[in-house]
Amino acid sequence: MILSDNETKVDLLNSEAIAQTIVKLIRERPERPVTIGVHGDWGAGKSSVLEMIEAGLENDKKVLCIKFNGWRFQGFEDAKIALIEGIVTELVDKKSLYSKAKDEVKDIFKRIDWLKAAKKTSGLLLTAFTGIPSPELVETLVTGVQSIASDPMQYATKENLDALTEQAGALLKEKEDGKNIPKEINKFRKSFDKLLEAAGIEQLVVLVDDLDRCLPDTAIETLEAIRLFIFTDKTAFVVAADEGMIEYAVRKHFPDFPDTSLHQAYTRNYLEKLIQIPFKIPILGEIETKIYVTLLLVGSEIGECSEFDNLIKIARERLKKPWESLPLNSEIIRSTLGDKASKVQNALLLSDQVGPILASGTKGNPRQIKRFLNTLLLRYLTAEARGFGQSISLPILAKLMIAERFIPRLFEQIASIAAVAPEGICKELKFLENITQEVTPKSNSKPASEPDKTSEPDKTQPVQKKKDKSTEVVEKLHSANPFIAEWSTSDNIKEWSKIPPSLVEVDLRPYLFVSKDRKDFFGTSTPLGHLTLLVDKLFGSKFSVQTLEAEIKALPKTDAQRIFDEIRSRIISNSNFDTEPDGIAGLTLVVKSHQELQDKLVDFLEGLPKQNLGPWVVKGWDGVIDGEAKQRFDLLVQTWAKSGSDILKAVAINVQKINKAK
Fold first, then answer.
1. Which of 44, 178, 329, 407 has the highest CB neighbour count under 10 A?
2. Distance from C-alpha of 289 to C-alpha of 315, rounded to nearest angstrom
3. How confident is the model at residue 594 (pLDDT cuts 50, 70, 90)?
4. Tell me, what DSSP letter sits at residue 239?
5. Is the pTM of this model over 0.70?
6. Which CATH topology does 30-77+203-281 take?
7. Residues 6+ positions from 133 with CB-CB distance below 8 Å
8. 461 pLDDT above the threshold of 80
9. Where are the domains positioned within the chain?
10. Distance CA 433, CA 316 (A)
């Protein structure tokens, strides 16, 4: 029951309405050039919409539909030329224009060769509007290439450079013939118009996909090539892209532009000026997600057939009015699928179990739903194959995976507790669920228009705000457990805890074991045993770490050393030391409470990469390091003052001056 993640022409999301609207707009005035954008987040279904547009046009003999995927051309050649040449080549091939319009074909490929030669020769950025360099740039280039050719061993083979010089010379010849850039643009378009006329088609539709997957330069070059066709009659472009990613590409393409509100407006306007008609794919709501999950799972069991097509039709009718909250219940599925209904019982059960969870956790993103379901099913099948499938409940596994996917820190914390708990139960979850189930204060039973005069406050005294019950609970938990304190202040975590089923009395060890494809919680916890939870707490905020001081001081020396080694190991695994890594506050507390670890702390600091160190490493050790260890640390500061990063040098020198002043 593994679900395909490829784009599809089978509409399970009712996106066909968008596709049909776009087809109607395209065909409404075929002589008019138009550019349409299909926007949405990664995985929202943009590629599937393009597939449906292509399917909607395939029987129209007056239209030629061409697909271009910029991501596939990335890294092979110039994306701008690839798009232009790809459009022309497919047009020529599909309509057999080599025999019908030989002269027109030769003419337009000659102009494409001009663009190729310009790109290969110059290596300079082409103009944003046409992709064609100015003659002055080309002339300068040829002079440079010819001088390079005099020393071929240093740069390249002479044969290659001679070829480049010859190509550039051809460009200059056109300049000498009186040709200029605006005329060349118009001639390219006229030549393209003639080609469309010879093809005998009413309209050319180009579907551009995966633009938001491309590197910024590739995305911009593709958009610039589209601009070359914008004013070409009988041509329609449909561009599928995430607006945010294109805005990012524009910012990266113009890095020297100041990062101001003007720059941000420019990045938005860039796409808006290119896209005449934008379509935004909406995210799925709760009922839409449930229907989508049901169709996915049922379709994976019985495949494409007339019964499944009928079920899709019923689903579409219900998706037309999602506010009525009418899901695909088992009765409808049985009556629609007939004899095949028995084959989808497991799929229906799974849909009922995880549909509500996915509606809450995936925020209505179709690709995330598919990938989540595939991972869920693979893990469940793995548990069955290994003999403990009966210990796994799909709803519980799904809820934990929602945390793993969208709140990974919470999942790691729950896992670290449950992995070492005697019965695998994370008792802290009970406090979390109690917080989220707090009853809101009862409303005043009197009408709003009737003021309560029974107890008017004394206006001469300052008003004392009464703490509500949940606030008091949180304050108590701050001193009891830093994990609970952190969870109780996070809206995302509290919303997650409301998702059924409850995990309070669940042995989570089987679920953690089947999640070992990400991390082996049992393997990493075995050397530390009961100390694992304490180490995790020492990676919390500085405030929460300070609450552990008494517990750390009470540790035997051997346990303190084991905790120090584990924290050091985790910190070193972090490749970024520009800012203070998580765990430093915990490491400091351990050393402060067990002074025999001071030399190990200095050893740790000496081993950090000084060229990548931020100023945090110089300060904060007063009262932690003293005696001989302090002397070693002072020598280390001297080293940083001489050979560290610029900012580290400055801070280290300043600390030395302060120490001398003392």
1. 44
2. 12
3. very high
4. E
5. no
6. Rossmann fold (3.40.50)
7. 118, 122, 124, 126, 127, 141
8. no
9. 30-77+203-281, 96-200, 286-438+468-517, 527-661
10. 37
